[in-house]
Design a protein that fits this description.
nine-stranded mixed sheet; 2 helices; 214 residues; UDP N-Acetylglucosamine Acyltransferase, domain 1; globular; seven-stranded parallel sheet; single chain; 23 strands
């Protein structure tokens, strides 16, 4: 990495917030060498009864050379849990909320600009995730319905090396198998087999035995 790029990165870090989050915030539990890296514009709201478990870096409001900033939100309600298992990057404009009974687990990978995650119960994102712009991942209908057997919230799981295309939606109760690809604009309401491509509304398998080479 050249010095100019390194300096550009370092000068955009919100160092005051870095110190507060990593050394003063009791809700954050860090493994040695793991930090929250808040770039300017990062907004983290962590309720007293919430918790963040850092086993690797969480980078918030990451930028690129064409889009040097924005605002990213990470909101944890009282009782919410965020676990960072591997280094994960939230690009500018990402919008993450974990509700009071929710647990969000992040493996390695990234959520690109304006991606939204709403975790009411349990969302797990495995290693190697590539979540594109304007994606929505939600594990609940958020508003209850009334009919026999109805469950408002169901776990969502993305296994390793999943690619989610721009403006796709992944809804409650879905497991996306390892190496799967969600096409842009797809609305996923059912499980996705490993190494397949799904597209459409609702999403259906359009190709199998696909290898996602990042």
């Amino acid at each position: 990495m050249n010095r100019a790029l390194l300096w550009s990165m370092l000068r955009r870090v919100d160092w005051i917030r870095f110190v507060i989050l990593n050394f003063c915030c009791k809700q954050v539990r860090r493994a040695p060498g793991a930090y929250i890296l808040p770039y300017r514009g990062a907004r983290l709201e962590i309720a007293r009864g919430a918790s963040i478990e850092l086993n690797a870096h969480l980078i918030v409001n990451w930028f690129d050379t064409k889009h040097p900033g924005g605002t990213s939100y990470v909101v944890l309600e009282n009782g919410a849990h965020l676990v960072v298992e591997r280094q994960h990057t939230l690009y500018y404009g990402a919008d993450i909320k974990v509700f009071s009974e929710g647990t969000l687990i992040l493996g390695s990978g990234y959520c690109h600009s304006r991606a939204q995650i709403r975790c009411h119960k349990s969302i797990t994102i495995g290693d190697g995730a590539a979540i594109a712009r304007d994606v929505i991942i939600i594990d609940s209908d958020a508003h209850p319905l009334s009919y026999p057997g109805y469950v408002m919230s169901k776990d969502v799981r993305l296994e390793g090396n999943v690619w989610v295309g721009s403006r796709a939606m992944i809804l409650k109760g879905v497991t996306v198998g390892a190496g799967a690809i969600i096409a842009a604009g797809a609305v996923v309401t059912k499980d996705v087999p490993s190494h397949s491509v799904v597209a459409g509304i609702p999403a259906k398998v359009i190709r199998e035995n696909v290898a996602f080479n990042k």
